[in-house]
Amino acid sequence: MTAARTHVLDLFAGPGGWSEGLRALGLRDVGIEIDPFACATRAAAGHTTIRADVAAYPTAPLRGKVSGVIGSAPCQPFSAAGLRAGSNDMGLCHQALDDLARGNDTRSALRTACADARSLLVVEPLRYVLDLRPDWVALEEVPAVLPLFTHTAGVLRSLGYSVWTGVLNAADYGVPQTRRRAFLLASRHCPVMPPEATHAKAPGPDTLFGPALLPWVTMARALGWGYTRRPAPTVTGGGAKTGGAEPFGNTSRKAMRAAMADPGHWAWQRPAYTVSGTVGHVGGKQAAASHLNLEPEEGAALQSFRPGYPFQGNKGQRSLQIGNAVPPLLAAAALRNLVPAVLEVAA
Known about the structure:
- The protein is an alpha/beta fold.
- It has helices at about 15-25, 35-45, 90-100, 105-115, 125-130, 145-160, 220-225, 255-260, 265-270, 285-290, 295-300, 315-325, 330-335, 340-345, and strands at about 10, 30-35, 50, 70, 135-140, 160-170, 180-185, 200, 215.
- The protein is built from 14 helices and 9 strands.
- Strands 3-2-1-4-5-7-6 form a 7-stranded mixed beta sheet, sandwiched between helices.
- The protein is globular, with a radius of gyration of 20 Å.
């Protein structure tokens, strides 16, 4: 089997953050995504997509065809930017994981008991893994979901997978954003370790063991401050499920230009705060720290999407996709240690 024939299934594929990370490693995926605007973005970017509900899609037609499973379920039930109704559903999610591991699919009954029906989507990757037995697995979520990843890891270890779970900071992998996310990485063919950082807040000097890490990429550098007259900073995911309002604010351009011209502004010294995909939320402290707003294309730059990535929809719809995506550079870092082993086994 060659890299071109390696089938990678991307659950809740969104606009293509994982897909872009895979592409950088020489692999392609098939995404399952229900949002029409994200599907349109993926099509424009050249990523194969099945428009469907991950929770309702049958696994039987995929058996024997999938080498890797990726999953980034909607984070709103568990995120700081959402209502965190998922915190009340954690017990039900743990029960669903246990039931699936025993071969008993209780998702429908448990979903009706959830405070937020989306909470149970976080167990869907295990259903696919149990049915498809891929060579490797990569899951990503907000840090609050880490206990569920730990639970899932126990199930995967019982099936012979090597598994690592933990929280990664996107800034440590060249993303101009201090986005922290939980990951589960698993492989049937090699020991799994967390990806080695390429960047650091304080890199230090070169040592006998190798060169120093690169410094974190600052927000100002990522947005070209000092070289362009684009406004910056705060990123918002704006727009409701159907687009909705576009809360990009009416901050004065004078304030934006002043921040761009001031090397003492925090954005010249460090990466951006977390890019959010929820209406009205802009990464906590960043809103108070900057009083500035970004266009979607600038949010995409902070998420490490390649320039000109063809996000589809109105401003709110594009921003929502951007804020909810996995940063491609972080995706590539998480996958880099899994993919060579898969290709070696396939060869």
